[in-house]
């Protein structure tokens, strides 16, 4: 069987794609990924594409049905081992049947934009996870990056943080990083908790500056 490549495609544009990732994608017959990620490679007309919803079981089922010589690449946004499919696929596939190719995470780009170190950071996702995942963050003093998603938008995140006793820190909302629609805005938790926008871009994270 051909090795499956699990490829991180970076935050959202080919500018941030590693050359080794591009090589793996170009060498594949079939690309699996979300519609947004597949769109990044829509110029590769010779590839078969399969849309994924994001669940590991769905990806594994499609992988199990691949042809013997089919070269398959599972494309994920950012890095495959950061709140993504990488570790679940790795845990379920024989070691010699896959290779994970890292990608630039949205988090890495977010910290670069602000010039803040991330080695002391705390990273949490409420994308498809409960807001209670934020419990305990009020005790952290370093920078905190929170991946948002769906109903758990930046306003809800800020309200929850204030509710659990977080101090009113300076923070940033960062949307569509690395794309032409990138938007980075400075705020603080109390203002953000009242920012009742009708919608936020689906790719948005909140970065809380460290307490000085
Ligand atoms: C399922 S997680 C995947 C994270 C990805 N593996 C990574 O390394 O960035 C998706 C969440 O990451 C954040 N995200 C991903 N790409 C982004 C971007 N270009 N700009 C801002 N946030 C992004 C958003 O919070 C989004 O809801």
Automatic annotation (TrEMBL):
CDD domains: Precorrin-6Y-MT (cd11644). Pathway: Cofactor biosynthesis; adenosylcobalamin biosynthesis. GO terms for molecular function: protein methyltransferase activity. Keywords: Cobalamin biosynthesis, Methyltransferase, S-adenosyl-L-methionine, Transferase. It comes from Dethiosulfovibrio peptidovorans DSM 11002. Transmembrane segments: none annotated. The lineage of its organism: Bacteria, Thermotogati, Synergistota, Synergistia, Synergistales. This is Precorrin-6y C5,15-methyltransferase (Decarboxylating), CbiE subunit. One of its GO terms (biological process) is cobalamin biosynthetic process. Residues 3-192 form the Tetrapyrrole methylase domain. InterPro entries: 4pyrrol_Mease, 4pyrrol_Methylase_sf, 4pyrrole_Mease_sub1, 4pyrrole_Mease_sub2, CbiE, Cobalamin_biosynth_MTase. It holds the Pfam family TP_methylase.
């Amino acid at each position: 069987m051909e090795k499956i490549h699990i490829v991180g495609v970076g935050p959202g544009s080919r500018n941030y794609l590693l050359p080794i990732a591009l090589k793996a994608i170009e060498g594949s017959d079939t690309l699996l990924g979300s519609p947004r990620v597949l769109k990044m490679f829509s110029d590769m007309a010779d590839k078969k594409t399969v849309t994924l919803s994001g669940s590991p079981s769905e990806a594994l089922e499609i992988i199990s049905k691949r042809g013997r010589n089919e070269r398959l690449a599972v494309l994920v946004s950012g890095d495959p081992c950061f709140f993504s499919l990488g570790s679940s696929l790795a845990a379920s596939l024989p070691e010699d049947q896959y290779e994970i190719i890292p990608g630039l995470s949205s988090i890495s780009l977010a910290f670069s934009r602000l010039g803040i170190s991330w080695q002391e950071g705390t990273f949490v996702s409420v994308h498809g996870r409960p807001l209670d995942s934020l419990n305990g963050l009020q005790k952290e003093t370093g920078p905190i990056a929170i991946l948002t998603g769906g109903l758990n938008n930046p306003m809800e995140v800020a309200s929850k943080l204030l509710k659990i006793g977080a101090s009113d820190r300076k923070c940033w909302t960062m949307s569509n990083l690395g794309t032409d629609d990138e938007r980075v805005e400075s705020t603080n938790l109390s203002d953000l908790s009242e920012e009742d926008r009708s919608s936020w871009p689906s790719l948005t994270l909140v970065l809380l500056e460290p307490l000085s």
